[in-house]
Design brief:
Number of strands: 9
Number of helices: 11
Mean pLDDT: 91
Structural class: alpha/beta
Order of helices and strands: EHEHEHEEHEEHEHHEHHHH
Strand content: 15-25%
Shape: globular
Helix content: 40-55%
């Protein structure tokens, strides 16, 4: 690094399962980073769609990879972090990418401080890989993270591929919750903050998040319910907040959880939005679906 400093090792973990349409772009985005001390770990869950053949094609440049039953995405990421030896780590899902030269630019422009979680910028991609917009988080404290309606859902959220974190910190807080399938990244950021980590938002384009219809996050209702329940769990563990702040946040979260299903329903289509009875809307949609299949 400039000034004669040592390049910290960075471990990048990619969990993979049946994403052959995207995984080659993911792998290349990591391997072409040009970072001097990069360790790449690919954990495939036993794909049957050609993903393994793509991984094998790049195996000489991948430090470790395996394919087989893995207990799910979170378990695979945790195992990858345990296998890794990096000072810092990131995980890039097999339908997402690292921004070109992200690691090099972070190292030379921002640097590394022990105990700091870095949040760069994230490019949102369409299914064809075209950038539709750039995102920058504004979360720096646990209180901001827990204010889901006012901060997280108003564009201040943390997009998972934009995060670079101390690997040992992730292991120390227990890694990802393997029983949390919709908000495990949010839960991890919360436990980082509870453990005393410093969050630093940077201007470095770091991750690239691809939007497509097969993503879990397209299920807005389940994602929101998981997010809010995780926030309530983290709130119980948050010793650094005043009693009044805790009460306010809990009230806001419970109100949001109660109101969201109706808001979600009204956003589900024109018939719901104009206020037709739900039972009628469901019958009309079912009929239209049958007609389209004929």
């Amino acid at each position: 690094m400039p000034g004669g400093r040592v390049w910290p090792r960075i471990t990048v973990v990619t969990p993979s399962f049946n994403q052959s349409s995207f995984i080659e772009e993911t792998i290349r985005s990591v391997l072409l980073q040009g970072y001097p001390d990069l360790q790449y770990v690919v954990m495939d869950g036993g794909s049957t769609d050609g993903s393994v053949e793509i991984i094998r094609k790049y195996s000489r440049w991948i430090d470790y990879w395996t394919s087989g039953p893995d207990g799910g995405q979170s378990a695979a990421i945790n195992r990858g972090l345990e296998i890794g030896t990096g000072d810092f780590a990131a995980w890039i899902n097999s339908d997402d990418m690292l921004f070109p030269n992200a690691l090099f630019h972070h190292a030379t422009r921002i640097g590394f401080n022990e105990g700091t979680v870095y949040i760069g910028q994230c490019a949102y991609l369409d299914v064809h890989g075209r950038i539709t917009r750039m995102h920058r988080s504004r979360i720096r404290t646990l209180e901001e993270l827990l204010r889901v309606p006012e901060v997280w859902r108003q564009g201040g959220n943390i997009v998972q591929p934009e995060v670079l974190f101390p690997r040992q910190l992730a292991l120390r807080v227990g890694g990802l919750d393997v029983n949390n399938h919709y908000s495990m990244d949010y839960d991890l950021w919360g436990r980082f903050l509870i453990a005393g980590a410093c969050f630093q938002c940077t201007d470095v384009p770091f991750g690239m998040l691809r939007s497509h219809r097969d993503q879990k996050t397209t299920d807005g209702l389940r994602t929101t319910e998981s997010l809010v329940r995780t926030a309530l769990k983290l709130l119980e563990q948050a010793d650094g907040l005043s009693g009044s702040t805790r009460e306010t946040i809990e009230m806001e979260l419970r109100a949001y959880l109660a109101e969201y299903p109706e808001k979600h329903w009204k956003k589900s289509g024109r018939l719901a939005r104009i206020g037709l009875p739900r039972s009628l809307v469901i019958r009309i949609r079912s009929a239209l679906k049958i007609l389209r299949l004929r």
